[in-house]
Amino acid sequence: MEPIRVLYIVGGRLNYGGIETFIMNYYRNIDKTKVQIDFIVNGYEKGVYDDEIKSMGGKIYNVPQRGKHFFKHKKEIKKILKTGKYKIVHAHANHLNGLFLSIAKRCNVPVRISHSHTADFVYDNKMKKIIFNIYKQKVKKCATEYWTCSRLAGEWLYGKKNQQNQKVILVKNAIELEKYKFNEEKRKRLRKLYNLKDEKVIGNIGRFSAQKNHEFIIELFKKYYEQNSNSKLVLIGEGPLKDKIKNKIVREKLENAIIIIDRANNINEILNMFDIFILPSLYEGLPFVAIEAQANNLPCIFSEGVTKETKINSNVCFTKLDVDIWIKKLQEYLGKQRKIDLDNLKKMGYDIKVEAKKLERRYIKLYYDERKTNE
Predict the structure, then answer these.
(1) Are residues 252 and 285 in the same domain?
(2) pLDDT, mean of residues 136-165
(3) SS3 76
(4) Which among 104, 204, 258, 344 would be 20 to 30 A from 316, CA to CA?
């Protein structure tokens, strides 16, 4: 018997990022004899996960870039939907789900899943926000299923009423818990690799974009470092503001105190060398890296822009974006011991091996429910 084929539509390419982490965590752990996933990606540039997906039997459809060839982009998606005869389309592009699912609706795809992974627009451009709000409204007209990573992300895309009426399904940002468990040997090896001795290491992982608030991170570390010279800041990520932040680091004469690591596929190992993890984002849906850091038992400081649903162990606090307050929290939380409690994370639904089976069953139920309806 052939597996049920589900078509994922992502807003960009399959590179390192939160949505891509969600997709790959679940894709690696579903039974592909029962459910197989294919992907529509934006543009023709190869993504970091393309080879892995193909090795597991998934198809990747590259379509013209939306920003440069809008009408051709839509036309190609329509062609894929018609020739592929997909019964389930799962859109992972937040507000752009409205664009993709409206095409799926016109192609008579019966199951159209919208997935919210964020709690606000990424762009500040006013014209873009007007257009994106139109797409956002389309989601509620075109989706047959409302899915979200958190209550906050669900309210943002589908509205408080739908969230309160339990029309929104929560799908946890689950991870391979054992893989992220704290490891003293890995800590020693990585600290040696990056020439870290007894320094207190403050870590942040995130795309260099306005949302992740790197300007605040540099201001915070500058002030903390003035009082605590035996400390280092480690930043991991890519993004459009990376050069700007690098220039700021040079201006503040912090080059010797800050380590920038580009793309990393071993975040589970790198977390071991940190002493604390900080996430001063302006807004978040439910960030994977926050779950990963807690699975590693790191003390964490999050901004109030990070949903409190993110808290899954006791070594976490949420605070407003005030440098002086964060300095005090750093001093307090850097002294905390790592607490190992993977059982609690499993109970809270963050074990990917369990959650992937739930997702698999959801797809199968949706597929056969739709078939019964049309018999």
Answers:
(1) yes
(2) 92
(3) helix
(4) 258
Q: How many domains does the chain divide into?
A: 2
* Higher per-residue pLDDT: 18 or 214: 214
- CATH code at 33? 3.40.50.2000
> Is there a contact between 163 and 172 (Cβ–Cβ < 8 Å)?
no
Q: Per-residue pLDDT for 375 more than 70?
A: no
Local structure of residue 231 (DSSP, 8 states): E
DSSP for 3-47, written as a single string? PEEEEEE-SS-S-SSHHHHHHHHHHHHS-TTTEEEEEEEESSSPP
Say whether both 121 and 246 belong to one domain.
no
pTM here? 0.89
Beta-bridged to residue 271, according to DSSP, are: none
Are residues 167 and 189 part of one domain?
no
Structural domain of 222: 177-347
Tens of pLDDT, residues 179-198: 999 999 999 999 999 999 99
Residue with tokens 């993004």: 239
